[in-house]
Design goal:
mainly alpha, flat
């Protein structure tokens, strides 16, 4: 049961771990004024992704959790809305011929 749960949620965990480096890059740009922040963020992304390991700073972990949970929510909502429509049936300007 636990193995199945972990395997089903592994992509979201990996995205969350990847997003911790995004949080680290954002944290590196906090002391820069707003006009230069984008340019500094691009160089900070390179520095943050030099190591493949996730950042363990609390802010970075929070960013990772939010990104992983946001992706999981998007996938859930997409699958929930897919049940509302008929599969394989054209809509809109489809022409029905007899």
């Amino acid at each position: 049961m636990k193995q199945k749960f972990i395997l089903l949620n592994m992509p979201y965990i990996l995205v969350g771990l990847f997003a911790t480096n995004l949080g680290q890059a954002w944290r590196m740009t906090l002391n820069v004024d707003a006009s230069k922040r984008f340019l500094v963020l691009l160089s900070a992304l390179q520095i943050a992704f030099d190591t493949p390991l996730p950042s363990l700073y609390p802010f970075d972990i929070l960013v990772g959790i939010i990104c992983g949970a946001g992706l999981r929510l998007a996938v859930y909502l997409k699958s929930k809305n897919a049940k509302k429509y008929r599969q394989g049936v054209e809509y809109g300007s489809a022409r029905w011929s007899a």
